[in-house]
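Figure 3 (text version): structure tokens given as input.
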């Protein structure tokens, strides 16, 4: 089971961001025209999954008070880590985005692993949603490198590297969850806080257009329809 979940994380992470990187290389600046919609769509999907699935499962496991506290701590930890990241030199913007994506892909993998243990169908839905939002992440990351005159090969490789922490998170989440099943709610709460911060601080605010709003609304509808 652990190997299966880890493999799912590897596929979701590397292929998701890798495809985004390939799109950036193929379409270059043209691909950026669709960023607002896809970022909004993925943001809406992720926000809905956090609100309607992760948090609900966490509250069932540890109660609303502890869940709220840990969600806040997860978001705060992500904010502090993000502020501590300082990268300089050539392709600084690309590496900064790479660090940011790696930083939140780990808890996303953790979310897949712990959610998969609690309810496999929900875990698969979570993996699919994360895979979908990894595509615009990989696209944005690769464009950051390409705009700084990095090679297409380098941009794609960096995009794929950004997805690896999802597999690591899946392994840790599934292993830790099986041994200490009583604290799955704790892990889900922390992951929910981290993911919520990323969506609200990075994904939706960075894409300011009507297409972002349409994407967010469509993402929410998709999740509610599946649920």
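Below: residues designed for each position.
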């Amino acid at each position: 089971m652990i190997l299966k979940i880890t493999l799912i994380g590897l596929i979701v992470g590397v292929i998701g961001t890798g495809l985004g990187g390939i799109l950036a290389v193929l379409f270059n600046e043209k691909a950026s025209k669709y960023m607002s919609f896809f970022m909004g769509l993925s943001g809406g999907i992720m926000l809905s999954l956090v609100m309607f699935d992760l948090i609900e499962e966490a509250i069932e496991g540890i109660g609303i008070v502890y869940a709220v506290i840990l969600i806040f701590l997860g978001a705060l930890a992500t904010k502090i880590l993000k502020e501590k990241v300082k990268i300089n030199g050539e392709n600084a913007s690309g590496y900064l985005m790479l660090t940011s994506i790696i930083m939140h892909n780990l808890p996303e993998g953790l979310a897949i692993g712990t959610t998969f243990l609690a309810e496999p169908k929900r875990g698969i839905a979570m993996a699919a949603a994360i895979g979908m939002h990894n595509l615009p992440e990989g696209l944005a990351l690769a464009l950051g490198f390409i705009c700084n005159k990095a090679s297409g090969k380098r941009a794609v490789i960096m995009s794929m590297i950004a997805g690896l922490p999802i597999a690591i998170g899946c392994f840790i989440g599934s292993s830790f969850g099986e041994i200490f099943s009583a604290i799955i709610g704790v892990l889900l709460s922390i992951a929910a806080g981290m993911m919520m911060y990323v969506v609200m601080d990075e994904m939706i605010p960075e894409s300011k257009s009507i297409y972002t709003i349409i994407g967010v609304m469509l993402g929410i509808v998709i999740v509610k329809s599946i649920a």
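Helices lie at 2-27, 35-62, 64-84, 92-118, 120-146, 152-179, 184-203, 210-226.
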